[in-house]
Specification:
This protein is an alpha+beta fold and 117 residues long. It has one helix and five strands. The chain has a five-stranded antiparallel β-sheet, with helices on one face. A hairpin with a 7-residue loop joins strand 3 and strand 4. The chain is elongated and about 70 Å long.
Length: 117
């Protein structure tokens, strides 16, 4: 799913596509802006050129990526996601650490929170 449907891009502009599923980043160039006006409203779609050998031009909305217009926006997004992940890992570790001081009969074993040696 592309998050680009509210953005306006310029033809020729380079954008950065971030696929959060496999943590890949690749640039694409806006090749075409398609505006459809209907009685029900206006719809704008973009086609981008991918950096593959054949330089495929595809609909931006069909890509499973988050679109960023600058490296700094993408970097900030990735840093915030990393911080959230680290915080969640630390929170889980602290819950396990808290259980270490409990009496063995009070412990509830949660297989996901226990590190096996």
């Amino acid at each position: 799913m592309s998050w680009s449907f509210f953005m306006k891009y310029q033809v020729g502009q380079v954008v950065y596509l971030f696929n959060s599923n496999d943590l890949k980043i690749f640039p694409a160039r806006i090749e075409e802006e398609v505006i459809r006006r209907r009685a029900s409203g206006e719809e704008t779609n973009y086609k981008v050129m991918l950096p593959n050998r054949s330089r495929d031009v595809v609909d931006l909305s069909g890509l499973d990526a988050i679109v960023f217009t600058s490296e700094s926006e993408l970097r900030d997004h990735m840093i915030q996601n990393a911080i959230k992940t680290i915080d969640a890992l630390l929170e889980r570790a602290n819950r396990v650490a808290g259980s270490l001081s409990a009496q063995p009969s009070d412990l509830v074993r949660d297989e996901q929170d226990v590190v096996e040696s």
